[in-house]
Amino acid sequence: MKKFNFKLEPLLEYRQRLEDILRKDLAEAGRLLDVEEGKLKSLKVTHRDSITEVERLKGEDNNTEELKLYYNYLVGLKGYMEEQSLMVARSREVYEGQRQKLVESARERRSVELVKERAQRLHETEENREDQKITDDIGSSRFIRGAIIEKS
């Protein structure tokens, strides 16, 4: 029985390696997205805590200078939050782009795998036919030999 040899095996291996690289790139993009989202969450917590502090200071009449400082701080913090929101959006776009590349790469690899599976089934069918032909020839030879022996 001949060994199955898929002529497009190098292409399949290349596509698998490419998919592995894209999977790692997607994981890195996901990690960076998580980092950026964490920074934004931290800024939001700081902003919320600062607003709570401003509300507390409003109850005290003698802290107008401190209130002005907090308001300026809150304005600056709000600007940082907007910048960080843009960073998160960019990171999300990069992540989605990497995900789409990975999906397309997996689709391309799978199409070559399907061609390989079909070729392998065809090879097995041909091998089974050859085996059956040999078995039939052996059976015919035995039958003919048996008939010749009976006549003698």
Describe the protein.
Its main location: membrane. It is found in: Cell membrane. InterPro entries: Flag_assembly_chemotaxis_eff, Flagell_FliJ. There is one protein chain. The chain has 152 residues and is mostly helical. It has two helices and no strands. Helix 1 packs antiparallel against helix 2. It is rod-shaped. 5% of the residues are buried. The mean pLDDT is 91.
Offer a concise description of the structure.
It is found in: Cell membrane. Keywords: Bacterial flagellum biogenesis, Bacterial flagellum protein export, Cell membrane, Chemotaxis, Membrane, Protein transport, Transport. The chain has helices spanning 9-58, 64-151.
Rg result: 36 Å
Please report the total strand number as a whole number: 0
Q: Uncertain spans, ≥5 residues at pLDDT below 50? A: none
Helix share, percent? over 70%
Task: Name the shape in a single word.
Answer: rod-shaped
Membrane topology: Peripheral membrane protein
Organism: hydrothermal vent metagenome
Keywords: Bacterial flagellum biogenesis, Bacterial flagellum protein export, Cell membrane, Chemotaxis, Membrane, Protein transport, Transport
Pfam families: FliJ
